[in-house]
Design brief:
With 137 residues, this protein is of the alpha+beta class. Helices cover 16% and strands 20% of the residues. The strands form two sheets. A four-stranded antiparallel beta sheet has the order 2-3-6-5, with helices on one face. It has a two-stranded antiparallel sheet with strand order 1-4.
Length: 137
């Protein structure tokens, strides 16, 4: 005897049950110090993203855009089997030569202007990200 049809169907066996669809990625809307949960790396007293640490200092004549999820576009590239390391900055515009000189001062390392990116010799991602946040990028 077949059971009558049921509104919404019958429960599927365990491996075939749907898992709930796409999970929204809301990390880009997160604001430091907002809400009750703080990670050990989050300082609730810090300024919001985009505000410089020294507001009276004039902004630089160039700008670095953030990625779609709010991160700074500073990346590390290892080449020659991991022997040679370079740090790349992308998504910037404005006075590129001025930015190149500033990055040279910060990293104390040679900087090359490649097509669409600044290439710094060595591992400087952490230092560059901290510096860019401090000047309000």
């Amino acid at each position: 005897p077949a059971s009558p049809p049921r509104a919404g169907g019958y429960p599927l066996p365990w491996p075939r049950q749907p898992r709930g669809g796409a999970i929204p990625r809301l990390g880009s809307q997160w604001v430091a110090g907002h809400g009750g949960n703080h990670s050990p790396f989050d300082d609730p007293g810090t300024r919001p993203t985009g505000e410089p640490l020294e507001p009276e200092r004039p902004p630089p004549p160039w700008k670095v855009l953030r990625s779609h999820n709010g991160n700074l576009p500073v990346y590390t590239k290892l080449s020659k089997g991991g022997i040679e390391a370079t740090t790349n900055i992308i998504h910037f515009f404005g006075d590129v030569e001025h930015m190149k000189k500033e990055v040279m001062k910060i990293c104390e390392s040679p900087v090359r202007l490649r097509s669409g990116r600044l290439e710094v010799r060595g591992l400087h991602a952490w230092k560059l990200k901290e510096w860019l946040v401090s000047i309000g990028m």
